[in-house]
Amino acid sequence: MSVLWVKAGICGQETTVEVRKVSQTRVSIAFQTTCEHVQRLSEELKELNIGEEMDRPMNLTTTYSLASKHLCRSSCVVPAAILKGVEVAANIFLPAAIAIEFIDGAI
Questions:
Q1: Within a domain: 106
Q2: What is the CATH number of the domain that holds 10?
């Protein structure tokens, strides 16, 4: 099982994603969120086929397809967190912290 906490950014919304391997080929996904858009995503995205999701180009994954339908902007980092959670729950990669930070004065 993997659990990820996401603070999305300027919107201030927070989401916890729990990904649990339920068979050799499938994971279940559960969400706790303050975001109405992620809540709508969670109502449709409950389970994924690991192999299909990991082998597809990003824009063809079920995760990003449903995110495109429900989330309010394309830069939301929650879909990336979902896929990271799938990788860890399926023992494809070890867990490691991920971060996106703006560097003051870089622009």
A1: no
A2: 3.90.1010
Give pLDDT tens digits for 86-97.
999 999 999 999
Rg (CA), the chain: 14
Domain tally, the chain: 1
Two tokens, residue 71? 């989330």
Q: Please tell me the distance from the alpha carbon of residue 85 to that of residue 20, in angstroms, as a whole number.
A: 9
| Residue 71 CB partners (closer than 8 Å, separation 6+) | 37, 38, 41, 78, 79
20-59 tens-digit pLDDT? 999 999 999 999 999 999 999 999 999 999 999 999 999 9
Is the CB of residue 47 less than 8 Å from the CB of residue 22? Answer: yes
Residue 103 lies in a domain: no
